[in-house]
Amino acid sequence: MPIQPPKSNFLVTRMKQRLAIMALALAALFARAAEPAAITVSGNTWTLQNEAIQVVVSCAQGHLSLTRLSNQMAEKDYLKDQAPESLFSLVINGQTVTASDGGWTLAKADLSDIKFYGKTWGKRLELSLTRTQPVAFSVRQVFEIYNGRAGLRVLSFLKNGTDQPVTISASDVFALNLPDRPHTLHYVTGNLMWNATKAGVHRVGRNVITSYDTGDGWFVVPENNWATSLVPGPAKASAQEKLLYIHAWDNEPKVRVASNPNAVQLTLFPREELEYFSVNFGVFKGDDMDGRMAVAEHLRQRFKYHNPAHILSTNDWQWGYHKRRRTDMNYRDIVVPKAQAAGFDRVLIDDGWYAPDDSTTPARNWTDMAALGQYINDHGLKPGHWFSLQGRFCTRGWGEGRDSADPANIDFKLKQMQEDLIGKYHSSWDQVDAGLLWKTDTETAYSHPADSVYRKILGMKRYMNTIAHQHPDFIMQTTCEVDNPGGPGEEGLGVGTHGVGNQNVGLIQLADNGIMGMFRRSEYADDVRDLFAAFGLFPLEGMLSTHGEGKDYATAWQDSPLWYYQFLLARHTMIYSWPGDWSETSVAHLRFFNDWRKNPRIQSILNEGMLPVYNGADRLKNEGPWAWMFTNESKSQALLFALNHLNLTKNNAFAAKLRWLDPDKTYVVEEITQTPDGGFNYVFRGEYAGKRLVKEGLPIDLDDGVEPCAAFWIQEKTRSGPQVLYADAPIFRYTERSSLTKLAVEIEGAPNSTANLIVFKPTANAVEKQVVKIGPTGKATAVFDAATVTDEARPLAFTDAAPVTAKFVRRDVSTAGQWRGKYGSLAAWLAGQPIATQNGYALRPKDAATYVWGKDDHTPRVPELPAGATGSKLAACWTAATDFDLQMTPPKAPGPWQLTVYVMDYDNIRNPARALEISIRTRDGKVLDTQAATPAETGAGIYLTWVVSGPVTIHARKKEGFNAVVSGVFMDKGQRE
Fold first, then answer.
1. Is 745 in a helix, a strand, or coil?
2. Which one, of 313, 263, 336, lies nearest residue 477 by Cα?
3. DSSP secondary structure string, 584-629?
């Protein structure tokens, strides 16, 4: 190699400068995702700043004020040219004092980091203000600014400096003279119902997100409760009287968060200091969805979600005392083995496990709670316990037992939790409910009637945060029963199917890293709709959904990816059905899903914040379909989910605008939808410019699959040669070594397993899928060339979907059970047998149970077994009391097909003979054809055959007899009529 001459000093210096500039640019790029908050000081002026917001706080000449409030992303100062406004005001013993009345003395200023769980979340400024008139009084005004694009939390601590009680009868907790420029103001009323106005609002209790017509805006979210008790005793809450209200440009130029004197008037005891209310404020650039995202990013930091992994747990509340299922033995023999096999994370032992009411001694049906907790831990699960601060079962009535406003009671309950539940029983989470916040109507040594509910909240918060901070893995979970329930029929309140009124909680009742329960008690009464509505109001990392509740909660196990994907909206999902009823097939299918979601590569993305992309053509209606996504920090990988379990708009085709991707990147998309038979439907959907996915969206047609749900893996295109697009659950991690013509993938994964590895071939716009065998050491290598492909791109184009048709062709009562050779050449499904996808055809019963009359090798109308199957024939059916559906989904290939339905009335001698009506319908319910089957025909066994195209629904309806039944469905090649 020739010797190169030395570079000149100028060139060396210039190269170093360029490298330094590149390093700074890269550092800035990566810091942008989580730029740390900062506070700088200049005399008595403090500048608080992060990536999104800059706030200047000044204290001079007895005045405390905000002199600057800048939206860093939009480069706008919202206080510029605005008249000054008092940051807070307090009515103390009937006289008003304000932050800017000149009567304050700055006694102290402290700066500190917000540090919990080994992480710094932001910075804290605490200003101690004192005054002597109208009484000796102090305020510790706190400003917390969080990292990244989060916002500001403002709270205060009030101190009575006298030897007499002092009453705060009313207050503005937070007020700013924000500009009333052309805008749309978004806010929530009722429980979760979003509204929009171009004017102002009065007495809004949840939140306000204001999007200016200039494409920027701000949010204000007070830490408030849902419903406030105004009279003593249980079930006396009022949804109309909350602790705090927001008034925005309500016949005045300012925006303020004010206390509600009807709900709280705080009386401070002599020399007492007490925490007052908190308000969250932040800014954003974009539309209302960007505003809701800004709230989500802020609350994720505010409530310090250091491990927001999704949790799936059992709950034993509905298992039934009379069946004695809630025992140590059943947990050891049934619950833990089933939950472990299905891939659950935790189990909850609900109300009633301890007696007497105020102890931690297990009731008589529990023999050794300490040993059981250890047993649950040893089997890879975490036990949790219902544990009430009031010390009485909720069946004894709200408003009884210990008072959480009493500091001594909180200390007592903390001691029980620390020493007994955590120390002895290995508890990892606490379900807090049972109406803790009833009003106390007499003065006590620690509260007054007008502030008793608020002081109970403070006691509960101290209890929950003490445990949450001392035990980082412990989760405090408040349920809808923390507030007194409003009761059914409260005026102006939307209620769900439970009819229990305003039974939900607010931010003020949420612990750090905690979870709150929705319990379907809202206007929507559906977990998916509730959770989409909660985005921008609550942290999704802190939400609980309760699949399994409802009219059929006792048997509501739904073995379906359409159900499983809903688990990925909330942080925590509880299943209420009795594990003894879970079938082996259902357990295996759920385990398949749980192994996938717990894969380290998948879990790391799912642990990021949920990002909604579609909830229907009108976001305010929230009618679906629903689509949401997760991305990693660099937006190089994403997971997208879509479903339509309610079909409210009768439309499964839409474009999901993936606004949270990077428009400057290029992405490749692989569909990875789980199928009901426990597999994955892998379809390569093509290469897309990020700008196109953001602006135009990814076409999704939920009729394209077996069920109205879909999942997609989205990967950044990083090279012109082959690259890994997707690796499924058994592959924990992989390393790529590539060239233009070859790709070697070194794999670490589950020992002695097989895995699908999908590699994108850019030159062919196609992929190659290999099944990789991972050896006993957990390692393998797969090699791909540049040319071999197994799947061409199949982008969805739902606008050109072929029409769904059905034409009846014949009735057959002569074949009876001898169907083989005549029906089912493409697919055959028999009731009582596994329902698997066959040759791309799928069948899904809906609102139907499977009933087996028994084994019968002699009756001619009982269907023979499929070829290769062994054992006796089964007389069986899908059935429902009046009607049910069987959804048939064909593969994406030219039709038509021949669809045959077999109806057999096996017990027509013992029961009234059955007459049925079988309809073929589109997925949105349009009837294409209907045929009747008489009692004579169903008694003999009748085959009804149609020529169909597209996905259709078989609707069976009882006309005469005990119930509706269908025993088989068959698919064959069809001919165009």
1. strand
2. 313
3. HHHHHHHHHHHHHHHSHHHHHHHTSPPEEEES-SSTTT--S-EEEE
Q: What per-residue confidence (pLDDT) applies to 425?
A: 98
Whole-Å CA distances, 908 to 497, 605, 872:
38, 55, 21
Q: Is residue 796 over pLDDT 80? A: no
Question: Amino acid identity, residue 740?
Answer: L
What is the residue-wise DSSP string for 82-102? Answer: PPP--S-EEEETTEEEETTSS
Task: Answer whether 69's CB lies under 8 Å from 30's CB.
Answer: no
pLDDT digits (tens, 9 = 90+) for 833-874: 888 788 888 888 888 889 999 999 999 999 999 988 889 999
Six token digits for residue 162: 């006298």
For residues 830 and 874, is the Cβ–Cβ distance under 8 A?
Answer: yes
Q: Which residues contact 282 (CB under 8 A, 6 or more apart)?
A: 52, 53, 150, 151, 152, 218, 219, 294, 295, 298
| pLDDT for the residue numbered 546 | 82
90 closest CA partner among 129, 60, 126: 129
Per-residue pLDDT tens over the stretch 581-592: 898 988 999 999
Do the Cβ atoms of 149 and 283 come closer than 8 Å? no
Strands (E), 407-503: 429-432, 475-478
Q: What's the mean pLDDT in 917-929?
A: 91
Residue 436 has pLDDT above 70, yes or no: yes
Tokens for 373?
A: 């907790």
Q: How many CA atoms, within 13 angstroms, populate the side-chain half-sphere of residue 779?
A: 3
Q: How confident is the model at residue 291 (pLDDT cuts 50, 70, 90)?
A: very high
pLDDT at 157 over 60: yes
Which has more confidence, 867 or 672? 672
Averaged pLDDT score across all residues of the chain: 89
With H, G, I as helix, E, B as strand and everything else as coil, classify residue 302.
Answer: helix
On the 0-12 / 13-18 / 19+ scale of CB atoms within 10 A, 282 is buried
Half-sphere exposure of 284 (CA within 13 A, CB side): 24
Q: Which residues pair with 176 in a beta bridge?
A: 255
Q: Residue 358: in which H helix or E strand, if any?
A: none
CA distance 809 to 825: 17
Q: Which residues contact 323 (CB under 8 A, 6 or more apart)?
A: none
In the three-class reduction of DSSP (H, G, I as helix; E, B as strand; rest coil), residue 911 is classed as coil
Residue 56 CB neighbours (<10 A): 19
Query: Phi, psi (5° rounding) for residue 959?
Result: -110, -40
Q: Tally Cβ neighbours within 10 Å of residue 27.
A: 10
- Residue 908 vs residue 794, higher pLDDT: 794
- The answer for residues whose C-beta is within 8 angstroms of residue 910's C-beta and 6 or more apart is none
Nearest of 292, 282, 294, 257 to residue 78 by alpha carbon: 282
State the angle between helix axes of 407-416 and 452-470 in degrees (0 to 180), rounded to the nearest 10.
30
- Residue with token string 């339905």: 901
pLDDT tens-digit profile of 616-657?
999 999 999 999 999 999 999 999 999 999 989 888 889 999
Instruction: Give 807's strand partners.
Output: 947
Phi, psi dihedrals of residue 114, rounded to the nearest 5°:
-90, 100
Reduced to 3 states (helix: H, G, I; strand: E, B; else coil), residue 693 is helix
Whether 32 shows a pLDDT value over 50: the answer reads no
Which pLDDT belongs to residue 651? Answer: 85
pLDDT of residue 959 exceeding 90: yes
Determine which of 36-40, 238-242, 433-437, 461-465 has the lowest per-residue pLDDT on average: 238-242
Q: What DSSP element (H or E) covers 377?
A: helix 369-378
Burial call 701-738: b when 16+ CB within 10 Å, e when fewer:
bbbbbbbbbbbbbbbbbeeebbbbbbbbbbbbebeeeb
**Amino acid identity at 552:** D
3-state secondary structure of 469: helix
Give the residue, 919 or 525, on which the prediction is more confident: 919
What is the CB neighbour count within 10 angstroms for residue 854?
A: 12
Q: Give CB contacts under 8 A, 24+ apart, made by 832-836.
A: 832/874, 832/876, 833/865, 833/866, 833/869, 833/874, 833/876, 834/585, 834/677, 835/676, 835/677, 836/677
